[in-house]
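Look over this one:
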Amino acid sequence: GLPAALPALPLELTVLYNSLLFTAGASDSAIKGEAEGIRQGLLRVLEACGACGQDLGTEELWQKVLQEVTVEELQAPLHRLGALQAAWWLAAGRLRSDLGRAHCSERQNKLLSLIKAWRVPPEGASLPLVQSAKDLKEILCTAAAFLQGLQELEAGNFPTALSLLQEAAGGFCSKKILAQIYTCLGCCAQRMGKPQTALQNLKRALQVDFQCLPALSHAAAVYHELGETDAELQALTLLYQALGKNPPAAASSSPYFLMRTELLVHTPVLTSLLHHHHPSEVKYLLAQRCLQDGRVADAVEHYLDFLSLLQEGLQQQVPLDGSSALPRIPEVFLEAASALEQAGRHQDAITVCEEVISRTTDLIPRVLQVEERLEQPECSSPGAELTGGLLSQKKESLCCLAWRAAGYLHQGWAWAKLGESKEAVTQFSRCLSDLLRLQLHGSGAKPTENFQAEVEVLQKIRLLSLIGRGTQFLELGRHKEALLDFQHSLQISPGDPAAASYLVQTLWKLNRKQEAAAQWQKLSQSSPGEDGQQRGQGRPLPLYLVSCLEQAMFPHSEPLARSIQDYLGTAAQDTSS
């Protein structure tokens, strides 16, 4: 409440500087809000000089102080307050707003330039400081370079981002922040198409601070891109083990500072890059990659571990809203069933599929209509929210139908492997019966773009189920029924090599040799590039269907091919004679 006096202001401003540093340093979270103490200090300075600035904003207040206050004794205290103001501005995202207003070719940030150009005034020995202005400048430079590097990384300006992040890595910060900077450098290099440089930076991050687990996660992703499966699985295993342990105390800086880089750098892009996976997400990634790479025994072990985590209430621990690495839970069950089938554990696979079937039964309408075109209203129109909700509901119903049908499909193949052809036919028939619920409406009976992916999966399941049932009809000697299934398969997917090959075999068994030979010739003349339908026309199949696709492939039959060739040769001789 005392009036401001010039002789006392250096001490007053120094106490304010120390107090603000203690306040910032006492917090473990990032600085937020405005530094009201700085504003009050500046108003005190103006008051002592016979001026006022109550109605001015922060920037205008600083301009007025710097223009009107020329007292030599106040220069060093004001410089220190200015440095704290820069810290608050950095933490408040001022750097990002400046960049957002700047032209792309003029992105050199004013605040960063000012910090670099700042000449720190000599410190007076009579007034002790809890953190020197020189150290504060180094921290500000590091934070500003880090923040601008993140901004450029988010904008896709990778060379500029790389340069700024490298500058930040050479700055003044704790081991924890240095590891984060190296992780960001690794991500930047990865996006630039430089995987080896990315790995070098990610390894540096782990060398600096092994608790920087996002670096390990990103390294696994780089190894995946390079096709180095052993290294990827090793990284994921280490990540899973590390996540299961109690983390030691965070790596700290030495010496300790009240104002630290971590208090100034908190942006959505950094949060995204440093996202920590839940252990169950990593366990799923291990299972998925093992299954994709054909390591069936390991895949089964990881999937069963994951399913046991589900029993422990995983849904409450991991967000299943798309932000997680996990797919929808029924898909995980179906992938587990696929792994169990490939491992020869057919009864276990049947049990897992039964869980999917029972859980989705009540979620599918009796008839599921998909229109060829469904116009979506503008977002601002009254019907937009309702239409969006209907689309979402219909998409969910299509997914549930696919999961349930896939459950029957897997059960059909499992019973077939067990030699139970009648039971296999029953399950394949249930799958096909389920798929009759889907009705396509429109001139070309093609799905709207909103549901194209879901309908393509359902059509692939229908194809695989028809082929599966046809093979079991052959096993039971019911050749005419098998023929109908293979013909229907080719209507769904013209030119499918598996269906066409089984059709040839069935016609031959029915002694319709001329038709079989004609189909065989047509199949032989088709080029390998025409096999687009077999792999979903470039759209990747869900992982849980890959094993079914492989089981549906026609086993090469040399005797059949030789018999048809002999028949064609005899027919040609008869024609020439």
